[in-house]
Specification:
126 residues; mainly beta; 7-stranded mixed sheet
Length: 126
């Protein structure tokens, strides 16, 4: 079993930055890709970013490319999402996610992920 705890959200102004973190338990963390998703009220859960198991490959949604950076520290069993130049449309609950096995990281299907954090709220004011 894998437990994910995501944190780091908050209330910021447009143009500000936040760094989200996701701490994982379990021996499988270092062997699988990790993803970040977000969900705004009334919207479907949306892919944000993903990173390969080794950290050597990343994949971003077009809406965040160039502004967000995903990274991981397998020794700390933690994945991060650095969010810069935040926009009001980034407002959502952000979730980290992990699969049970190796999956392609370069796509954003939430159905590929089995474990989810509890979510952390990011609110960006204009």
């Amino acid at each position: 079993q894998v437990q994910l705890v995501d944190a780091g959200g908050g209330l910021v102004q447009a143009g500000d930055s936040l760094r989200l973190s996701c701490a994982a338990s379990g021996r499988t963390f270092a062997t699988v890709p990790m993803g970040w998703f977000r969900q705004a009220p009334g919207k479907e859960r949306e892919f944000v970013a993903a990173i390969s198991w080794s950290g050597g490959g990343t994949y971003y949604a077009d809406s965040v490319k160039g502004r967000f950076t995903i990274s991981r520290d397998n020794a700390k069993k933690t994945v991060y999402l650095q969010m810069n130049s935040l926009k009001p449309e980034d407002t959502a609950v952000y979730y980290c996610a992990a699969p049970t096995t190796q999956i392609p990281y370069n796509r954003g299907n939430p159905g590929l992920y089995a474990y989810w954090g509890q979510g952390t709220q990011v609110t960006v004011s204009s």
